[in-house]
Amino acid sequence: MASLGINLDHIATVRQARRTVEPDPVHLALLAELGGADGITVHLREDRRHIQDRDVQLLRQTVRTRLNLEMAATSEMVAIALAIKPDMVTLVPEKREEVTTEGGLDVVSQETALQGQVSQLQGAGIPVSLFVDPERQQLQASQRSGARWVELHTGSYAEASWSQQPLELARLIEGTSEARQLGLRVNAGHGLTYQNVEPIAAIPGMEELNIGHTVMARAMAVGLQEAVRQMKDLVSSPRHEPLFGAGLAAES
Ligand code: PXP
Questions:
Q1: Is the pLDDT of residue 251 over 90?
Q2: For site-directed labelling of 133, which of 71, 116, 165, 209 has its Cα 20 to 30 A away?
Q3: Taking the complete model, does pTM exceed 0.90, yes or no?
Q4: Is 50 a catalytic residue?
């Protein structure tokens, strides 16, 4: 059964629109946890466009589930993570001009640099997950980097037309299976919605889905706790049969 990580970045985006103190992701994390979130995720971006350093420091003290810190693979961010000690670091690619994270990390081209950062973080007891596209070469390089986890990028699946979506789903099922054969544990996220999440939650071996935008959008209508509860129902009991790869089901 997959668990649910709730990404709170958008709460900070609203606050930063006025550079004021509300809404506060630190306060609202409690409602996400009451709604059934198994973890809280925030992305501390280099440009601090939404989440601020103070948010991460306070969330570290207040989150009662697990705190997953998304960040770029830079020495500034590694130093922050080493000081704050989140329960997991997810390394993501970051471009200043992007609206949101575009594509997975190219682990293949930065394998040596990533090896150093993964070993620093994991040496300090912080498990590292690499946000990657479900491609064999990226998964193999992720394993060589020493990371114990990958987060498979679900953006292509989420954006695919209905006729292409089964193909993208198959890539994610295959990627999950390959990652697990390499000894990696598997999360996924990006672009997931109430409408498309169930097939991903049903993938054998999938451990956690990180979801933000769609839950924050629904929260405007029904409140955050209820929006998280509705997503938790879908993620924990998906009404969708996995297409194939059922052999891994026994392990999950
Ligand atoms: N996972 C990663 C690595 C992300 O960068 C994001 C977006 O910040 C998410 C998951 C959540 O994506 P969404 O907001 O589209 O649900």
A1: no
A2: 116
A3: yes
A4: no
